[in-house]
Amino acid sequence: MTITEPVRPAGTQPHPSPDGHLVRDVLDPASGRPITSVREFSASDVDTAVAAAREAFEHGPWPAMTPTRRGRVLLAIADEIEAAAEDLYRLEAANNGRPVTETRAQLSRVPEWFRYNAGLLAAQRTAVLPSDGPYLTYQRRAPLGVCGIITPFNHPLLILARSLSAALANGNTVVVKPSELTPLTTLALLPVLERAGLPRGVVQVVTGAAEAGRRLTEHPDVAKITLTGGTETGRAAAVATARRFARMTAELGGKTPVVVFDDVDVQEAARGAAFAAFIAAGQSCVAGSRFLVQRGVHDEFVAALTEVAGDIRVGDPRSADTQMGPLISARQRDRVADLVDSARREGARIATGGGVPDLPAELAGGFFYAPTVVCGGTMGMRVAREEIFGPVAVVVPFDDEADAVAMANDNPYGLGAGIWTRDLARGHRVAEAVRAGMVWINDHHRLEPSLPWGGIKESGIGKDAGSESFEEFSWLKTVVTRLAPGGVDWYGGTDRRLN
Length: 499
What we know:
Strand order of the largest sheet: 14-15-16-13-12-18-19
Distance between the termini: 55 Å
Helix content: 25-40%
Oligomer: single chain
Number of helices: 16
Structural class: alpha/beta
Number of strands: 22
Radius of gyration: 25 Å
């Protein structure tokens, strides 16, 4: 589980290292060159990690600790993450290509999840239930056991913190499988957890690609899987966990509609739309990628959004001046380019972007794509229906509120939605009618540790964050105690029981 030095030129396929292990190069998406190499775990390696986590659960101190002691460790983890913040910001920016200023803003919130779940642990109560007759009936919560967390490339540390903090608070042990493209901050977190006092073995990290992830979801000793990734990956994981009745939470794909009504300040809405579409280079499950704009302001909105997109500074994510970095890989850039090209073929117009931007020579090998605005399209086009996961905003006009709701719901996904209007009554009506797990009115991407995060339809199942996530990392036990004197003699006595 250690980071090793690069052993060959850039590539993303596993290859042997001098010590005989398979390793995979981790690339800098801004240059296409390797940063380092990490171990490629096989299915048997995952078995070893799960066995270690099970040993830590069954015989280690963590599950048996009092809630107060576990809470103190969670608070110490938050403090240690803050102390290591600058190194973590820069490592993640180098690994996934998000500008360092953007990464700093996001990762500065990671400690909040550990503090929030420590608070839920301190405040946790269980019920005493009413019973007919001389009985005391109460409930207890117990940890699930070994939990698997599979994280994506786009927000490696933040998405890990959401589930890890809840899993640890409840006394579970954890095996983490980060994306093979962005494992570095997850590996860097291990010594941080140790410094905070988390016992060894409680958190295991397995690096690798599909084989490692598949084995983790199928493993009979893993009691719960939390997965953030593509819809097809989630579907396969759901089948694997269902076979053994394990729990699963999955945040999957999205095609977030952003509805812009004609009563808005167009410049303000365009700036909000740009944030929704282009933050993280559009590589977010809730990125605003289809903008449904009322006809009365459609042309003005397109012009304003085009101006904002054209002014975004694309470049080296390590620079404080950069506002948008590269995509995660050449494969992802090619997919984005293909979808934009399909829009051209289907008759849409590219208002700005639509290709690789001009950049300095040292970034020529990076996976950059310019902020792009597509207009003149229809809801039937591929670019308006498929998840893009890139810096592309598709603008489609609508006529009235009913039209907007119908278009917003005309998609297999249901993760997030945005609404821009000055009429808050209408905003609430549309929020009620849109089929999405999260809705923002006059904002986008806003999150808090207390806000349940997750969607419906093909966007997944269950919730991350909030008390809903916290409770899903434990199981509920009901204890019934008979208080009456004497024994129970159903067959020979006069005892009369309701059952």
